[in-house]
Amino acid sequence: MKTKITALAAAIAVSLSIGVSADPRSPNYDHDGTIFNGGSGAFASQESIRAGMNGYPSQGQDAGVRWSEITQSGGNNNTAAATQMGHQQYSRIAQTNGSYNEAYVRQGIAGGNNERNESVVIQRDGDSNEARVTQTGSFNDSYVRQLGSGNKATVEQLNNSDYSDSIIYQTGDNNTATVSQRDNTDETWSFVAQYDDGHEANITQVRADNSASYVFQAGHEGHKATVVQRDEANSLSMIRQNTNMGGAAVASHSQVNGSGNYASTIQW
Q1: 74 — phi, psi (to 5°)?
Q2: Rounded to an integer, what distance in angstroms lies between the CA atom of residue 56 and that of residue 268?
Q3: For residue 200, how many C-alpha atoms fall within 13 Å in the half-sphere facing its CB?
Q4: What percent of the chain is modeled with pLDDT above 70?
Q5: If 0-12 CB within 10 Å is exposed, 13-18 middle and 19+ buried, where does residue 250 land?
């Protein structure tokens, strides 16, 4: 599943091409004719790492693999919950054509160092849905896709030894994305893409060198993105906000107690 989520992230990134750069994830930044490319290694190194991490199948026919799939369609006020502990977990939750639904995923609560967790949550064609994913261990992937308004996505990747990835994709108005990646050994990666109006994204990365956060928000108005990176070195924070009708947008980066970090905002 690592390669599938990586391919998905690449497809999203390509779809977000803007005039500033062929790939809006690119850390290259043109300022008055001077090209800055600080932090360029963060995305490049993680692309190669994720490409080689297809370490177990997505279905539980092999010993040690735990596989869960929940599908709920055409209703409101549904709840789906998956809790998995061990070393190889895969969970997929799909809630479609409904509102006020809730999805909860907890993986790796045993806290082992060799865990590989994969979580996919799809909430489509509904409003006021909520997804919450919590992962501990190693090699975590979380992908949340929400299509509708008033939705909330929260991802926590905690006490991971290496290489945790979070992707949140939201379309609709007044959606909120929150990512907390804390106390990880090295190289955490967060990608948030939000379309339409009234977006809010809050990203926190603490104590994980070579981390990268990328936020892309597109619509008419009301964008707000906040990124906090603390006690890290050689980390990257990028915020891209497109208000095509000239509406308001707020971007905030806070990098504390670190060295070699890079932050970049583009608003247009």
Answers
A1: 75, 30
A2: 42
A3: 11
A4: 71
A5: middle
Give how far Cα 98 sits from Cα of 14, 104, 165, 199, Å.
Answer: 30, 16, 28, 21
Domain boundaries, the chain: 65-256
Cα–Cα distance, 1 to 4 (Å, whole number): 5
Residue 40, SS3 per DSSP: helix
Neighbouring C-alpha atoms within 13 Å toward the C-beta of 52: 4
Return the structure tokens found at 36: 């800055």
Express each pLDDT in 77-103 by its tens digit. 999 999 998 777 888 999 999 999 999
Nearest to 116 by CA among 85, 89, 156: 89
- Is the separation of the CB atoms in 233 and 211 below 8 Å? no
